[in-house]
Amino acid sequence: LFIMHIQEFVTVLVRDPRIQKEDSWHSYIDYEIFIHTNSICFTRKTSCVRRRYREFVWLRQRLQSNAVLIQLPELPSKTPFFNMNNPNHVDHRRQGLQEFLEKVLQDALLLSDSRLHLFLQTQLSPEDMEACVSGQTKYSVADAIHSFASLNRRFPIEDEERKKEKNDADSDSESSSSGLGPSDDSISCGCKASPASEES
């Protein structure tokens, strides 16, 4: 009996920047973080969440305080001239955030930090992630990731939208996503879990 050694991989994509309105004065951009992996470190093999820049800043600070001896990769700098209506600025930041996560995910010590997994695989706020990691919540880290995944499956609408988009792919307008707008169900962010592995 010989066991094939399957190469572990973690694919992370930071994509689909969207402007979200906080109130009538303030807007911010959040990005979809898509994970696809076969790594045993991960509770979920595919996941999809939306995070904004300042949550990345929080994550980096927490990882650094936990792994003092590691030189953490830098985030794209917070520039005072950042313009969310400038596609080049937004894409430059998106690339920087993706490179940051790619480097973080290559480090075994950082991978062992529960905050990283909650950041990547749930939509919990930094305060809630902190509470969960320090045992102040009824749910564990794995519970939080599983319940987010099951919550994520209640949005078949966007899958239908995607099928329609595929059919009229020749018109490559972006208008279909704007119809959804920055409402709360953008939490689903179009991540399709493979139905085969999803019997809970």
Principal-axis shape: globular
Q: Determine Rg (CA atoms, Å).
A: 18 Å
H/E element sequence? EEEHHHHHHHH
CATH superfamily: Phox-like domain
- Share of residues in helices: 40-55%
Number of domains: 1
Family: Belongs to the sorting nexin family.
Membrane topology: Peripheral membrane protein
Domain PX: 9-126
GO molecular function: phosphatidylinositol phosphate binding
Descriptive overview:
It is a single chain. The protein has helices spanning 53-66, 87-104, 108-111, 114-121, 126-133, 141-152, 156-167, 175-180, and strands at residues 10-21, 27-37, 46-52. It has 200 residues and is α+β, with helices and mostly antiparallel strands. The longest helix has 18 residues, at 87-104. A hairpin with a 5-residue loop joins strand 1 (10-21) and strand 2. The chain has a 3-stranded antiparallel sheet. It has a single domain (10-152), classed as Phox-like domain (PX Domain), CATH 3.30.1520. Helix 4 (114-121) crosses helix 5.
